Amino acid sequence: MTLKIERFQTRVRLSGELRSENLDQVQAEIDCCGTLIVLDIEEVDLVDVEGVRFLNRCEARGISVLHCSAYIKQWMSREKDHGGP
Q: Is 70 exceeded by the pLDDT of residue 84?
């Protein structure tokens, strides 16, 4: 499965697989939203390490990451704890 991206004003909703090859496209959608962006990843079922690092960078920039599954949230936390980007 690929990644599906939908943008609704300041919300970007992702579903499918968040992989490194999709990050430029996701960033482009985020850039179109302006400020107070929300990234909804409820329907993301697979990420790679670059996807996790991307989500951490989003949070560090003030982007809210919503509906994050427990395994992705734990992975994000481990990456932060180990000094991942």
A: no
What torsion do the CA atoms of 6, 42, 11, 78 make, to the nearest 10 degrees? -120
Residue 24 contacts residue 47 (beta carbons within 8 Å)? no
Q: What's CA 60's distance to the chain center, in Å?
A: 12
CB distance 19 to 47 below 8 Å? yes
**pLDDT tens per residue across span 27-82:** 999 998 877 899 999 999 999 999 999 999 999 999 999 999 999 999 999 999 88
- Enumerate domains of the chain plus CATH numbers: 3-81 (3.30.750.24)
How far is the CA of 38 from the CAs of 9, 30, 46, 73, in angstroms? 10, 9, 19, 16
Please say whether the beta carbons of 59 and 84 come within 8 A: no
Which residue has tokens 């990234």?
Answer: 39
Give dist(CA 12, CA 6) in Å, integer: 6
